[in-house]
Amino acid sequence: MTEDPIQQRKKDHLMIIMEKEVAYERGTLLDGVQLIPNALPELALDEIDTSCEFFDKPLKAPLMITSMTGGGDRSGAMNHELAEAAGQLGIAFSVGSQRVLLEHPDCLPDFAVRKELGDGVLLGNIGAQQLTQYPAKRISELVEMIEADGMCVHLNPAHELAQAAGDRDFNGQLKAIAALVKHLDGRVLVKETGCGIAPLVARRLSDVGVRYIDVAGVGGTSWPKVERHRKGKLLSKAIAWTFGEWGMPTAPCVVGARRACGPETYIIAAGGIITGLDIARAIACGADLAGCARLLASRSWWGGKELDEEIQTLIHELKTAMLLTGCRDLVALRQTARVYTGELRHWLAQLDQLATSKD
Known about the structure:
Blueprint: H1 5-19, E1 33-35, E2 52-54, E3 57-59, E4 63-66, H2 75-89, E5 92-94, H3 99-103, H4 108-111, H5 114-117, E6 122-127, H6 128-131, H7 136-145, E7 150-155, H8 157-162, H9 173-183, E8 188-192, H10 199-207, E9 212-214, H11 223-227, H12 234-242, H13 250-261, E10 266-269, H14 276-284, E11 289-292, H15 294-301, H16 307-324, H17 330-334, E12 338-340, H18 342-358
Helix pairs in contact: 7-9, 10-13, 13-18, 14-16
């Protein structure tokens, strides 16, 4: 039997991400968030509290596994393993794209991870383009199928344009997102896939009722670079090479989204998050939560023995950063003293000028 094109594509993507060099050469610029040290913290490490709430449920740490697994060989087993680790350690988990379920509901076991996750936060995943092709009720059924707490809607125009068979028309997505937000009573997270959400786009999303935004900026996996390793037409290959470094780094995305949307919007920092210090810096400059994909998915891909240990290390590093800045909890971390330096400082100055000119 010939494998479904969607499943084959997802299989290709996962293999390329795990076995090829597809990371951005540019960094997140989170190293430009300089946290001011507190040499007299008057705290013990055991007193540090990393707990928070996400989708109205408690988490032990402000971290979500933003899975890359969306159908195809090995992805089902990886989904279950990642969800089990998330459940045991009290962090959130998102499955990869459920698009395949719209045409092949028999793939449901690959995504049905509620048992492994327990009562933890579980999010579905679908592309914004599918929202323009299916009614909100049909998309909401994908949430119910896996007993999820909400739905991630991913934006990925650069990736689509680098695919030979990718989408070329992105009209109507904002209206469709607004309809889904209404249908799911606000249980929608809108995310990029690595090119970043600029402040103006974050504001447009907030204006139509989106309460959760994952900026997913430059610094991690470049999906146009992923397409360099797949078969495709010459024109798409050219896009994949030319736009391999396209996007906005994670740090200015976080700061910009917070300034554009205000305190009511829940900001997730993803894209190149590889240490607990990255998480601390992201929260200090405006994020509520951090997302991590390739780092944790790779632990499952290569055997999974270090997955729990990797997550525990991230949380321990976060706690260490909090102690070294004298922050007992995440509320204090969001208010901690910090200085923006280097390229990040220039990004923020220019973004301020753009915001002023728009006003």
